[in-house]
Amino acid sequence: MATTASFIIVSRNDIPIYEAEVGSATKREDAAQLHQFVLHAALDIVQDLAWTTSAMFLKNIDRFNDLVVSVYVTAGHTRLMLLHDSRNDDGIKSFFQEVHELYIKVLLNPLYLPGARIASSHFDTKVRALARKYL
Amino acid sequence: MIGASKIKQYSNVLEKPLSKGKQEVSLSAFAFLFSELVQYNQTQVDNIAELERRLEDAGYAVGARCLELLCHREKCVMFMPFWLSQGNRRETRLLGILSFVHSTVWKVLFGKVADSLEKGTEHEDEYMISEKELLVNRFISIPKDMGTFNCGAFVAGIVRGVLDSAGFPAVVTAHFVPMEGQQRPRTTILIKFAEEVLRREARLG
């Protein structure tokens, strides 16, 4: 089943530090920009919502046509945002939790500056593998 | 090799599981490392304020990572009822994050909770965490000509890193407070929150 999914990690200072198209559908030329635009537009909503609840997983905070944005906010206010069209909430939650663990391992590197781009190709491979598994 | 156990070799650090961590680290090793850190920074700077700032920056990096790691470890507690373990919890309130620093962070870093957490009386935005003797200061003596310099600036940096990453920007400093009846003064970490934190707290009610 082809799913569109766009995944982005945004740091505390609203700078994207990692992005990937993890859906299995074929990419259209304008799709990438559109997905990024929708995700960035959802940042405002996340900012307000993040302070009203102490949960980390916020589901379905914004809609665009038939695409839905779900967000997972970590303790350090790093936002993992996913733009998707499926309704698989449990799978998405597990995906977020696993990526959160990967992110913490990257963060624990003393040479990694918090808020810098995550350039590790290994991290990229793992995120895509997780996306295939859970989404 | 005698007693060689089958330790799985991981090709990349991202494969290794996030463990509970060793509960104890050698105190002398830490004291040695910390003294080298202070001495190294002393050679790089001309004045005390700069030295304090450098120690604070070193602590800030530790604090930012501490927050994420400890919040993540908290959810893996065995005795939680099923419904509680469903989601991780972030701290969104001022008192919440302060007691997190005072208990959890202190317990993991120094092996015990901080001695006391007080609210400042003169200003609304000041809070103080006191400790009879900071672990990092235990093997350090300050020469008279360095005045009010306190190596607790490292710990102040850690607290600032935790608070800043959680979204509560603050100015954190370490002070010696002389106590009657004791030779060594008590150390107080003074936390002064930024305006926006108080406004947001008031808004959240």
Automatic annotation (TrEMBL), chain A:
It holds the Pfam family Sedlin_N. It comes from the Eukaryota. GO terms for cellular component: cytoplasm. GO terms for biological process: endoplasmic reticulum to Golgi vesicle-mediated transport. InterPro entries: Longin-like_dom_sf (IPR011012), Sedlin (IPR006722). This is Trafficking protein particle complex subunit 2. The lineage of its organism: Eukaryota, Viridiplantae, Streptophyta, Embryophyta, Tracheophyta.
Automatic annotation (TrEMBL), chain B:
One of its GO terms (biological process) is endoplasmic reticulum to Golgi vesicle-mediated transport. It is found in: Endoplasmic reticulum; Golgi apparatus, cis-Golgi network. Its main location: endoplasmic reticulum. GO terms for cellular component: endoplasmic reticulum; TRAPPI protein complex; TRAPPII protein complex; TRAPPIII protein complex. Coiled coil: none annotated. Pfam families: TRAPP (PF04051). Keywords: Endoplasmic reticulum, ER-Golgi transport, Golgi apparatus, Transport. Part of the multisubunit TRAPP (transport protein particle) complex. PANTHER family: 41-2 PROTEIN ANTIGEN-RELATED, TRAFFICKING PROTEIN PARTICLE COMPLEX SUBUNIT 5. Belongs to the TRAPP small subunits family. BET3 subfamily. This is Trafficking protein particle complex subunit. It comes from Linum tenue.
